[in-house]
Amino acid sequence: MTDLPADLPGELEARADASAGRSTPWRTGLRRFRRHTVAVVSVGYLLLVVAAAVFAPTLSGYDPNAVDLEHVREAPSAAHWLGTDPTGRDVFSRLLHAARVSLGVGLAAAGLAVVFGTLLGGLAGLLGRWVDSVVMRLADVFLSFPTVVVTVVVAGILGPSVPTMIIAIGLFQWPVCGRIVRGVTLSLREQEYLLAARAAGAGSFWLMTRHIVPAALPPISVAATLAVAQAIGLESTLSFLGLGVQPPTPSWGNMLTDAQSLTVIAGQPWLWLAPGIAVALTVLAVNFIGDGLRDAVDPRQS
């Protein structure tokens, strides 16, 4: 009988540790996300939209604001792939340039909501007492108002503009992220390593940046994707109502304003189909990515 090497148990233990080290939470989450086929396809679609927006001047071949009264409301053709609008502007060119504005508003508004919500939610959960009560009651107040109505009122008072729209949408979306961060903070603040850090003199800012925010990052990423989708939809709605992005700057929402008559809807579908489909597909793609992220970070997934 052959004797086993004396160092075999140590070697097996080292191999087991190395195998466990390769299965990190990030790699496990990425593997779960890649199994979500619809989310992966949505990522590809969004990358395509972003690339089209970045290279819009090269791809379109037309100035999105160039008026050509000799080619008004022309149907799609080899010269104008998606036709022209009531002032002769190329619809395809405006669609690509509008992606910059709509995506920019969605990302900026969602970013503002995430930053504001993370800060207030973290402070509420970490400090507790009256700070928690004030922040949560403030969140209840913001959630009680319809975002569209409030944004319309703000735009009516301050005037419609992109910064006004971003601030209004962002400030009324922060409670969702704030509640998530507060819940994570409440579950962590009595953990031994946080108590030890407090005893060593760590401040609230250090605890938030080193422990709380990293722990809350997975659910925050899911909330952020949903906030982007909602912000894009709100931008389109407000621009359609004339209270968002103002002409001649193109956005998917104000491109739909040309389709407010039955004549256009029935006889000139190229004026509203392209921006309408772009809004619907983009919002759906972002929502599907959020679903994929939620499944990826869910610890109950096997």
UniProtKB/TrEMBL annotation:
<feature type="transmembrane region" description="Helical">
    <location>
        <begin position="101"/>
        <end position="126"/>
    </location>
</feature>
<dbReference type="InterPro" id="IPR050366">
    <property type="entry name" value="BP-dependent_transpt_permease"/>
</dbReference>
<protein>
    <submittedName>
        <fullName>Peptide ABC transporter permease</fullName>
    </submittedName>
</protein>
<keyword id="KW-1133">Transmembrane helix</keyword>
<keyword id="KW-0472">Membrane</keyword>
<feature type="transmembrane region" description="Helical">
    <location>
        <begin position="270"/>
        <end position="290"/>
    </location>
</feature>
<feature type="domain" description="ABC transmembrane type-1">
    <location>
        <begin position="99"/>
        <end position="290"/>
    </location>
</feature>
<feature type="transmembrane region" description="Helical">
    <location>
        <begin position="164"/>
        <end position="181"/>
    </location>
</feature>
<dbReference type="InterPro" id="IPR025966">
    <property type="entry name" value="OppC_N"/>
</dbReference>
<comment type="similarity">
    <text>Belongs to the binding-protein-dependent transport system permease family.</text>
</comment>
<keyword id="KW-0812">Transmembrane</keyword>
<dbReference type="GO" id="GO:0055085">
    <property type="term" value="P:transmembrane transport"/>
</dbReference>
<dbReference type="InterPro" id="IPR035906">
    <property type="entry name" value="MetI-like_sf"/>
</dbReference>
<keyword id="KW-1003">Cell membrane</keyword>
<dbReference type="InterPro" id="IPR000515">
    <property type="entry name" value="MetI-like"/>
</dbReference>
<feature type="region of interest" description="Disordered">
    <location>
        <begin position="1"/>
        <end position="23"/>
    </location>
</feature>
<dbReference type="Pfam" id="PF00528">
    <property type="entry name" value="BPD_transp_1"/>
</dbReference>
<dbReference type="GO" id="GO:0005886">
    <property type="term" value="C:plasma membrane"/>
</dbReference>
<feature type="transmembrane region" description="Helical">
    <location>
        <begin position="138"/>
        <end position="158"/>
    </location>
</feature>
<keyword id="KW-0813">Transport</keyword>
<dbReference type="Pfam" id="PF12911">
    <property type="entry name" value="OppC_N"/>
</dbReference>
<feature type="transmembrane region" description="Helical">
    <location>
        <begin position="37"/>
        <end position="56"/>
    </location>
</feature>
